[in-house]
């Protein structure tokens, strides 16, 4: 099943892909099943019932509505750095034996099609195409062999990073949380539609049509299952939590000359069998209060 979250005339809605057509309902419509986060929190049966409710709903033209992140307000957005050996090497880091973990906040999230905003304080806006795993049931002290049973589905992320702010201090939080830099979408694909842990699927990032990252999900040092097992060993993961699993080599910071995103660019992240997350790049305009 594939679900997309959207907004039409400021009313949120949910749509299901049916034979290459999206069919959906909005909040307030008879039969509207609820938002995706609520459904994920309610479990697999709730997702199946939502699909049943939506399969004969009116068609939704995604070009005429505003897409939202699949889940706009997760309790946690857990990001993983240095999870591809080549990326660790190009970044000048020794490959860690334990995943490099940092957090993002909901305020940074944007959807497919929305502009990634380059802040006026920096020109070092970098792309990072990544696989997202979305937790489907509470997970604490989960074994690696059981971990994929806790995944509801998958999506795509562009972890837009302000590099000079990322490295102002040992903690990366500032550079990873500028408003409108965390692109997430375009939709949510249930785990049963994809290989376990998305192993073997291709991830490719393109900037203005030029391939800048190209790798297999199987190249991750810490697989989706391993990440869930490690994370659940020190905190409880809850339904709707978003795990952003890391980016492969090819980032703009490591290139010579460096390649950062700028106003007018378009960045696409494609993961085989999931879709394409596409976002234009724009400069953020700041309206300052009069003195």
From TrEMBL:
<dbReference type="GO" id="GO:0019752">
    <property type="term" value="P:carboxylic acid metabolic process"/>
</dbReference>
<dbReference type="InterPro" id="IPR036663">
    <property type="entry name" value="Fumarylacetoacetase_C_sf"/>
</dbReference>
<dbReference type="GO" id="GO:0016787">
    <property type="term" value="F:hydrolase activity"/>
</dbReference>
<dbReference type="Pfam" id="PF01557">
    <property type="entry name" value="FAA_hydrolase"/>
</dbReference>
<dbReference type="GO" id="GO:0016853">
    <property type="term" value="F:isomerase activity"/>
</dbReference>
<dbReference type="InterPro" id="IPR051121">
    <property type="entry name" value="FAH"/>
</dbReference>
<keyword id="KW-0479">Metal-binding</keyword>
<protein>
    <submittedName>
        <fullName>Fumarylacetoacetate hydrolase family protein</fullName>
    </submittedName>
</protein>
<dbReference type="InterPro" id="IPR011234">
    <property type="entry name" value="Fumarylacetoacetase-like_C"/>
</dbReference>
<keyword id="KW-0378">Hydrolase</keyword>
<comment type="similarity">
    <text>Belongs to the FAH family.</text>
</comment>
<dbReference type="GO" id="GO:0046872">
    <property type="term" value="F:metal ion binding"/>
</dbReference>
<feature type="domain" description="Fumarylacetoacetase-like C-terminal">
    <location>
        <begin position="76"/>
        <end position="281"/>
    </location>
</feature>
């Amino acid at each position: 099943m594939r679900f997309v979250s959207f907004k039409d005339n400021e009313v949120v809605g949910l749509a299901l892909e049916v034979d290459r057509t999206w069919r959906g309902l909005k909040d307030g419509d008879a039969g509207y099943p609820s938002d995706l986060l609520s459904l994920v929190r309610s479990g697999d049966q709730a997702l199946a019932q939502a699909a049943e409710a939506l399969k004969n709903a009116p068609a939704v033209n995604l070009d005429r509505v505003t897409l939202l992140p699949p889940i706009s307000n997760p309790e946690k957005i857990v990001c993983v750095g240095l999870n591809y050996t080549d990326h660790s090497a190009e970044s000048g880091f020794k490959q860690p034996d334990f995943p490099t973990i940092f957090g993002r906040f909901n305020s940074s999230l944007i959807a497919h099609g929305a502009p990634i905003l380059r802040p006026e304080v920096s020109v070092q806006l970098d792309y990072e195409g990544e696989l997202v795993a979305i937790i489907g049931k509470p997970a604490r002290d989960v074994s690696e062999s059981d971990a994929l049973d806790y995944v509801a589905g998958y999506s795509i992320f562009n972890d837009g990073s302000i590099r000079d702010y990322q490295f102002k201090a040992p903690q990366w939080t500032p550079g990873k949380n500028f408003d409108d830099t965390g692109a997430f979408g375009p939709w949510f694909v249930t785990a049963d539609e994809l290989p376990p842990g998305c192993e073997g699927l291709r991830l490719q990032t393109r900037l203005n049509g030029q391939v800048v990252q190209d790798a297999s999900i199987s190249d991750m040092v810490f697989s989706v299952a391993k990440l869930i097992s490690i994370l659940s060993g020190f905190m409880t993961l809850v339904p709707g939590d978003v795990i952003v699993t890391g980016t492969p080599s090819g980032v703009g910071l490591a290139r010579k000359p460096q390649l950062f995103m700028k106003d007018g660019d378009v960045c696409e992240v494609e993961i085989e069998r999931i879709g394409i997350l596409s976002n234009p790049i724009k400069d953020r305009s700041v309206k300052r209060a009069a003195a």
